[in-house]
Structure formats: structure tokens, C-alpha cells
Design goal:
The protein has 25 helices and 26 strands. With about 700 residues, the protein is of the alpha+beta class. It folds into 6 domains: about 60 residues, Helix hairpin bin (Helix Hairpins); about 250 residues, D-amino Acid Aminotransferase, Chain A, domain 1 (2-Layer Sandwich); about 110 residues, OB fold (Dihydrolipoamide Acetyltransferase, E2P); about 70 residues, 5' to 3' exonuclease, C-terminal subdomain (DNA polymerase, domain 1, Orthogonal Bundle), CATH 1.10.150; about 80 residues, DNA polymerase, domain 1, CATH 1.10.150.20; about 70 residues, BRCT domain (Rossmann fold), CATH 3.40.50. Strand 17 and strand 18 form a beta hairpin. The radius of gyration is 29 Å and the shape is globular.
């Protein structure tokens, strides 16, 4: 490294700019082009020289300088940030039959089209979204709940495979398709904000070295690479994140830069300076998907990173967009997982958990065993029918798997290893919590009849606690900071006897409790008070009505529109709703005919809970089968709100313009979609005309 002494500021400015360009060039060649001639020593030496110049001339420090990957004081906390486009997850497939069924559903919707698929690795890491403004990294976010993530920009900057500035000049892109390169060049003239999503992860080698250091320090080893990657990105001190040597691969270009297929999106990501994994397969037939899956599974152990399956996606963006979303997953993509990892262990005992409905659930207590890097010590046995089907006894050696590499499940009893000391399990005649009588009942769950053992005491301590926990859960009132231990403390101290009491709590009530400081009490109070306003669907789900899950709550809200109408509804009307059967209808009807339940609802309202009426789907469906594309920003609403209003009226939302598009809505600063619409002769309307179509 050569640094000229007594360098004046103009010379320093020129040298610093050249160093930044050279370092960025090296980063691109190393991470994107996989150039073996680029070494860390050269990269580090140039970065050190640049750091010294910037130290002498602080006003020369640029936001995208390689020296800014690690810097600043540790954070106090991460701030919540909204995703412009929701970060969806994938539905899973665990067999060829599952994938064939998925393809069959797609072909029913596109009978006239032959579908092409793109297959790529499903990394076992942490999904991250990166947003660039005028080519400079502005914000990096976690997935969060898909709508709200956390700003972890400082930590992401420490990952060298993430560019701090994009390759806007398109250097080193001679090997890419000329037409796509020209399309990208033109798009970059019009688009200033670019979003790319990918996976942050840690290599097996780095993970091994980290655990080696943990062992040397006498500390417990980390469970698996994914947990280390996720934990590293949530460190409040970026220096700790930097020490973990994380990697990052791009897998989805969100911004429309002229790509017509998902594969072209990958190529554009590479041209812009993102690292994209080379294991990609374009498949015109489903058997090619199966072959790719088998190939990756065969080399899985040799891959430098952990992967838990293959993502299969419809390649053509227009078709993918028109397929839409089911729940929180795109219909046009699926995660084809590898077989669940398995291990053997012993059942030490079988304990009983009492649920919020009073149902008793047997849970196997296992000798701790590692399955796929995670230590498993408990697995639900669901009910007596499952125990009898397995033939499971206390003391048995069993096979445990993690279904989808997540949920532990006992799948087999190895009866040949029995010693004769094993003991049969019998459901208790009295509730293990309140000692009330247990009854054996036939109930309907998910449309199927089954036998359940139920505590007859509706005020059972365990039931009451679980009802409150359900009420505060993610898909109900989603109250942050009020976890199981806090709920149990409030309940035991007599501060609450039901969920409505949460909204009546004052900070002074909590401050009187042991270990509740003034600040924490105030934070909990504000968290609860901030969730008083809730949608009708969430409110119905939070009530914990037997058989009523998240989807049924949505169906009830969509049909009736208000809480008052649901409470007054007759059983026959509830039963007439699509996807709601007789047992569910009877349960909903009975719930609101119970005076105690009605008093509870009234108590919630009196405590200040405001239930938002659900806007029902219009009967006339004024935009039925019309396809809309929005370009530019709207003043009256966000894109998500526009999408919702279009769908409410029977219309379809698309992300790219085609000859099948009915309307292109041009907001402020419209992008390339506007020009494409003009070329194709698609009708272009402004925001005022759009609002008129919506009748707003």
C-alpha cells in the first residue's frame, strides 16, 4: 500500500474516488463474476488506504464508501419499517405428488398456456429486502410479518457480497444478453428506486470455526447456521455482525427494470452487482424439476451453505402475477422441501397440556436429541387415537422427525427394542390443573370428527391463561410485550381475570409488582392501549370460539360486515356461508347465545375496544375480470390499498403491462410501464379517473 505524504485535498478527493471505484470493481469481480485472481489481501490493502484518506479528510467520506461497512455507535433498538410490496412466504411440498398437485391447479387456470418453471436453491437463512435510491443502499429490512420488518441496514452493510452502490455503469457485463442489457440501461434512466430481495446466511465453514471458538471459550456451541445468521443480523452492535462473516444471495428483483421472466430478473441482479447463486434450472416439464431436486439433494452435504429444498416458480412474470396470492403465499411458486430429518430417542414420560377450549393434549417428554441441528425434548401426540395408532408407550424408543425441518413429530415406535419395562398411557379422569372431571367427547375439528378428552370446568386456570394468550397472539390483537410469563403474573396477582381486563390496566397497577419498573410498566401499558382498535376478523378470532380459526373469522367478517350482525345471526344463515359447515355454524351461534360471552364482548367494548366494521364485497363487482397495472405513486392511497380496492370490486392486480391489461393507472413519476402501455395501445388513466372507477 502506497500513500503519498502531504497529499492536498484535491489530490485526496481524486485518489479516494479512484480507490472506491477500484474496490467496488474488485467486489463485483469476486462476488458476481467469481474471479479467482481477486484476493482479500488486495481488497483489504486498498480499503485501508481509503480509510486513512477519509480520516484525514472526513468530508470526503461517501455514504457508499467501502469503509462505511462497519461504523457508528451500537443501536439501542431496531425500528419497524413497512414493505412497499409484502414479503410473502412459500407453501411447502414434501413429495412429487404434492408438486404434481400444485402444477395441476396452475394448469386449470391456464389451460391454453404451457408453463416454464425456474428452479433454484432454497437457502436456510434469513430473508432480507434491500432498497437503493439513485444506486446507493438506503435501507435493508427483515421480512418480519411480511408487512412490517425491522431496519437492519447497519448490519447488512457489513456483508461484502451486498453492494453499497449499484453497478449503474454496467461494467463487466459483456457476457450478458445484449437486448436485456440495453433494456436495463434504458430502465435505469427512468427508475431511481430499486428493491432486491435475497437470503442472508452463513457458510458451513464459518459456522464450524465459530463453534470451534465457542468450545475453546468453554461456551455452548451454536445450534445451526440459520440461527447464527438470524442472530448475527439482530445484533445491536454492527461490529459483532461483521465478525460473523455472513454472505448474501439475491433471489428476487422486485422493481420492474424490463425483466419479463424471473430468470431475467436474476441476470439483471447480477449486472447490477448482486451475487446470484449459479445453481439454477429452467424446466419446461415437471420431470425436469424432479431431476433438479434429486441432483441438489445428492450434493446437499457438499454445498458450502445449508439448503432445505428447492424453490420452483413459474418463470414468466405476467403469468406469475395473474396467478395471484393464496393466503400469504404466491400461487405461482412452491418450496419443494427435502425429506424431514429424523433421529431416534426415548419417551421418558407423557404429560398433559390443557388448551383454551379445555381439550387435553398428551405431549411426549423425550430424551433430548438433535434433529437437523435443533435439540428436541418434546413432541405432541395430539390425542389418544394418535397414541393408539402409533402403539406408543412410556419408555419406548421412537423415531422423531421435524416436519418441514421445523415441527417435531413422532412417526414410528421401534417395538423391537422394548424391554418389557414400558408402561401404557391412560388419559386422566381429572384435569391435572384444576382437578375437575374430564369427559370424553366427540368433536369436529377441521371438518373431521374425532374424540377429545375435555376438562368440564370452564373456569379452569390453564384454560383461562391460554384464552388470554390466544387473545394477545399475532393473528388476534397482536399485543407486543405481553408474553406468557407476564400474562401469568398478572393473572396470579389478580390484576386480570379475562382479556378485557388488560385494557383496564394502568401503569401504577403494574409498578406495584416485583420486577416491574416504571418504564417497563409504561411500555406495556402503551402497547396494550395501542391495540384497542382492531379489525372485525381479528376480533372474532381473538374470542377463541370453538372451531373458528383465522380463515373462518375472515369469512364471517366478509359475510356479515359488523359485529352486531354476527351476534344477531341465526344458525341457518351462518351455515349458508361458503366454507362454513354445520358444526362451526352451531358453535358460532351458541357462543353468542351464551349470556356470559355476550357480557364479555360488552366488557371489551366498554373498556375502549373499537371493532372496525368490515367493508363487504360489492354485489355488482364493477371491475369484474378487469386487469389493472399501476405505475408511479398515487396521492390518495398506497399501492396496497389500491390493490385491495381493485380486488374488492372483482378486478385483478398485475405488476407488468401486456396486451391483456385493461387499464394502466399513471400516478406521479410513472415508469417504463407507462411507455409500454402506449406502445401496446393499452388504455392509460390518471388517478382521478381511477378513483372515479372505484366510485370514491
Amino acid at each position: 500500500m502506497h500513500i503519498k505524504k502531504d497529499m492536498n485535498k484535491p489530490e485526496a478527493k481524486i485518489r479516494a474516488q479512484k480507490l472506491r471505484e477500484e474496490i467496488n470493481d474488485l467486489r463485483y469481480r469476486y462476488h458476481v463474476l467469481d474471479d479467482p485472481e481477486v484476493t482479500d489481501e488486495v481488497y483489504d490493502s486498498l480499503t485501508q488506504e481509503l480509510r486513512k484518506i477519509e480520516k484525514e479528510f472526513p468530508d470526503l467520506v461517501a455514504a457508499d464508501s467501502p469503509t462505511q461497512r462497519v461504523g457508528g455507535e451500537p443501536l439501542d433498538e431496531f425500528t419497524k419499517v413497512k414493505h412497499d410490496t409484502p414479503m410473502l412466504s412459500f407453501n411447502d411440498a414434501f413429495s412429487q405428488e404434492d408438486v404434481i398437485d400444485w402444477e395441476s391447479r396452475l394448469k386449470k387456470l391456464f389451460l391454453h398456456k404451457s408453463l416454464e418453471y425456474i428452479c433454484e436453491l432454497k437457502f436456510d437463512g434469513l430473508a432480507v429486502s434491500l432498497v437503493y435510491e439513485h444506486g446507493i443502499l438506503q435501507v435493508g429490512k427483515t421480512r418480519g410479518d411480511g408487512v412490517l420488518g425491522e431496519d437492519i441496514t447497519k448490519n447488512l452493510k457489513t456483508i461484502r457480497s451486498i453492494p453499497l452502490s449499484l453497478n449503474i455503469a454496467l461494467k463487466h457485463t459483456e457476457g450478458f444478453p445484449k437486448h436485456l442489457k440495453e433494456t436495463l440501461r434504458e430502465s435505469l434512466k427512468k427508475v431511481s428506486r430499486i428493491e432486491v430481495r435475497g437470503e442472508a446466511l452463513i457458510s458451513k465453514n464459518v459456522f464450524f470455526e465459530l463453534n470451534k471458538k465457542q468450545k475453546e471459550k468453554g461456551l455452548a456451541p451454536y445450534a445451526n447456521p440459520r440461527n447464527v445468521a438470524a442472530g448475527s443480523l439482530r445484533q445491536l452492535d454492527p461490529k459483532i455482525t461483521a465478525s460473523r462473516k455472513l454472505s448474501w444471495f439475491a433471489y428476487n428483483l422486485i422493481t420492474n427494470l424490463g425483466q419479463k421472466t424471473h430468470y431475467e430478473g436474476h441476470l439483471i441482479c447480477s449486472m447490477l452487482g448482486f451475487r446470484v447463486h449459479s445453481e439454477i434450472k429452467l424446466a419446461k416439464e415437471i420431470k425436469e424439476v424432479f431431476q433438479f431436486h434429486e441432483n441438489i439433494k445428492a450434493q446437499r452435504s457438499k454445498l458450502p451453505f445449508e439448503v432445505d429444498g428447492v424453490v420452483v416458480q413459474v418463470n414468466e412474470n405476467e403469468i406469475f402475477s395473474r396467478l395471484g396470492v393464496v393466503g400469504k403465499a404466491p400461487r405461482g411458486a412452491i418450496a419443494y422441501k427435502f425429506e424431514a430429518k429424523k433421529a431416534t430417542t426415548k419417551i421418558i414420560d407423557i404429560h398433559i397440556q390443557v388448551g383454551r377450549t379445555g381439550a387435553l393434549t398428551p405431549v411426549a417428554v423425550l430424551e433430548p436429541v438433535k434433529v437437523g441441528g435443533v435439540t428436541i425434548s418434546n413432541a405432541t401426540l395430539h390425542n389418544m387415537e394418535e397414541i393408539e395408532r402409533l402403539g406408543a408407550k412410556i419408555g419406548d424408543t421412537v423415531v422423531v422427525e421435524r416436519a418441514g425441518d421445523v415441527i417435531p413429530k413422532i412417526i414410528q415406535v421401534l417395538k423391537g427394542l422394548r424391554t418389557g419395562a414400558e408402561k401404557s398411557f391412560h388419559m386422566p379422569k381429572k384435569c391435572p390443573v384444576c382437578r375437575s372431571v374430564v369427559e370424553r367427547k366427540m368433536i369436529s375439528m377441521g371438518g373431521e370428527a374425532g374424540v377429545a378428552y375435555v376438562c368440564t370446568n370452564g373456569k379452569c386456570y390453564a384454560q383461562e391463561l391460554r384464552k388470554i394468550r390466544h387473545f394477545t397472539s399475532k393473528h388476534a390483537f397482536d399485543i407486543d410485550g405481553v408474553g406468557p410469563k407476564i400474562i401469568e403474573k398478572f393473572f396470579d396477582e389478580g390484576l386480570i381475570i379475562d382479556p378485557a381486563d388488560l385494557f383496564l390496566l394502568k401503569p401504577s397497577d403494574m409498578e406495584a409488582l416485583e420486577r416491574f419498573a416504571q418504564k417497563s410498566a409504561q411500555n406495556i401499558y402503551e402497547s396494550i392501549q395501542g391495540k384497542k382498535k382492531v379489525s372485525l376478523a381479528r376480533f372474532v378470532y381473538a374470542l377463541g370460539i370453538l372451531h373458528v380459526g383465522e380463515q373462518t373469522s375472515q369469512d364471517l367478517a366478509a359475510h356479515f360486515g359488523s359485529l352486531e350482525k354476527i351476534m344477531r345471526a341465526k344458525q341457518e344463515e351462518i351455515d349458508s356461508i361458503q366454507n362454513i359447515g354445520g358444526a362451526v355454524a352451531q358453535s358460532v351461534y351458541a357462543y353468542f347465545k351464551d349470556a356470559n360471552n355476550v357480557r364479555f364482548v360488552q366488557k371489551l367494548i366498554k373498556a375502549g375496544v373499537a371493532v372496525e366494521a368490515q367493508k363487504q364485497v360489492e354485489k355488482n363487482q364493477t371491475l369484474a375480470r378487469k386487469i389493472f397495472v399501476v405505475t408511479g405513486s398515487l396521492e390518495a392511497m398506497s399501492r396496497e390499498e389500491a390493490k385491495e380496492k381493485i380486488r374488492e370490486r372483482g378486478g385483478h392486480w398485475a405488476i407488468s403491462v401486456s396486451k391483456n391489461t385493461d387499464f394502466v393507472v399513471a400516478g406521479n413519476e410513472p415508469g417504463s410501464k407507462y411507455e409500454k402501455a402506449k406502445k401496446l395501445g393499452v388504455k392509460i388513466i390518471d388517478e382521478k379517473e381511477f378513483l372515479n372507477l372505484l366510485k370514491l
